[in-house]
Write a structure and sequence with these properties.
The chain is mostly helical. It has 11 helices and no strands. It has helices spanning 5-9, 18-23, 31-54, 66-79, 84-103, 106-135, 144-147, 155-180, 185-204, 207-227, 229-253. α5 (84-103) packs antiparallel against α10 (207-227). It is a multi-pass membrane protein.
């Protein structure tokens, strides 16, 4: 009576102990299922690897190209007027170009700008050549350092830019499909109201005028927001609350406009 069940049944009849650890509580798994499971896992890993290679995600892993990081930093410095002379020069040049386009055609402005740049570079080249001849020096080409700068794009850079452009294009097409086919009634109504407002904007301003206003806003709004951030955030919060309240009332009155809870 004191003998254990495992001793009576033998090693083949044990339900617990070593056989339980080896086979599991419900016995051993048939070899066929193990092979199928391993086959499915290997195929899944291969497909995931192929998808990652074809459509890799643009994650911020802290390994961005130095050129991109430097360009972003320079743009922020210009918009926030860290260097007044540089920001003023860029702002004035862009405004002069846009105002020139309001008076002349794109072809004329491009031709005049090209002639001005060529005149400046040719004049400087001739001046340095004459100066070297008079002083009997051999300093070489005045633009030698710029001519030696590598400006070609590598295959990796072109591939990265193409992938990003493809990602943005696919995202825009999916969003437009969602809006035009009324997947969400509220979002489609908001889009319709925005387009209706743009008809009045288009009647008052042309494209160049809007572009000029956008440039002025880009160079003025960041510095204004930086100086008066608390007050602006307070007013924006009030406006957002009112807008959300109105949208909620409209959404409650329109049948089928209420979004489904996820």
């Amino acid at each position: 009576m004191s003998s254990k069940p495992g001793d009576e049944l033998g090693s083949e009849g044990k339900w617990f102990g070593d056989d339980c650890e080896r086979n599991g509580i419900f016995g051993s798994t048939p070899p066929l299922f193990d092979e199928l499971r391993e086959d499915l896992k290997s195929k899944s890993r291969e497909e995931t690897s192929d998808l990652d290679q074809k459509f890799h995600k643009f994650e911020d892993d802290g390994k961005r190209p130095p050129v991109a990081m430097e360009t972003a930093s320079t743009a922020i410095d210009l918009l926030y007027w860290r260097n007044v002379k540089q920001s003023g020069a860029v702002f004035g040049s862009v405004l002069l170009l846009l105002f020139s386009l309001t008076q002349f055609s794109v072809v004329s402005v491009g031709a005049y700008l090209t002639l001005a740049a060529l005149s400046a570079s040719i004049s400087f080249r001739i001046y340095k050549s004459v100066l070297q001849a008079v002083q009997k020096t051999d300093e070489g080409h005045p633009f030698k350092s710029y001519l030696e700068v590598e400006i070609s794009l590598s295959q990796d850079q072109i591939g990265n830019y193409a992938d990003k452009a493809l990602l943005y294009a696919n995202t825009c097409m999916k969003e437009l499909r969602r809006l035009f086919l009324v997947q969400d009634l509220i979002d489609s109504l908001k889009f319709a109201v925005l387009m209706w407002l743009l008809t009045y904007v288009g009647a008052l301003f042309n494209g160049l005028t809007l572009l000029i206003l956008a440039v002025v806003s880009m160079f003025s709004m960041p510095i204004v927001y930086e100086k008066h951030q608390a007050q602006i955030d307070q007013y924006v919060g009030l406006i957002r609350t009112q807008v959300n309240s109105v949208v909620g009332k409209i959404q409650a009155k329109i049948p089928g406009a209420k979004r489904k809870e996820e």
